[in-house]
Structure formats: C-alpha cells, structure tokens
Design brief:
Number of strands: 0
Order of helices and strands: HHH
Structural class: mainly alpha
Helix content: over 70%
Oligomer: single chain
Strand content: under 5%
Amino acid sequence: MPVTELLLQGVELMLLGMGLVFGFLAVLVLATVGMSRVGQRLEPPREKPVAPASSGAAREAAPDDTLIAVIAAAVDMFRTTQK
C-alpha cells in the first residue's frame, strides 16, 4: 500500500472518530437540557422568603465586642508563639 493511501485512510478514520464523539456529546448536551427542563416543570413553586421586619435582626447577626476581643487575643497569642 502506498503511503498516501495509508494517510488518506488515517485521515478518514480520524474524521469518522471525531464526528462520532462530537455527535455523542451533542446528544448528551441535548439530553441534559431536556432533563433540566422536565425537572423545572415538575418542581413545585418555591415560596418567597420573608424579609426581616426590623433592623434588629441585622444587629443579632453582628458579632459582639467580647467575641472580637477573644479572637484578637487568640490571634495575638498565636503570633507570639510562632516567632
């Protein structure tokens, strides 16, 4: 067999393989998108979250001064022992 014929067969096989992989990946993407749409339709509607009524909830989430002092002391102690 001449070299050119072998090269042509190699290119043909390469294109066939790449085409099959591309086709499989395209089918996979379409199946994923389809399943996502089916899942969104089957999911019950979500309830809207209730917003906090006052700014007191924001104060409860903030750390207090004692906690900040304890953390600062722990960091300082760690830094002095690592020297």
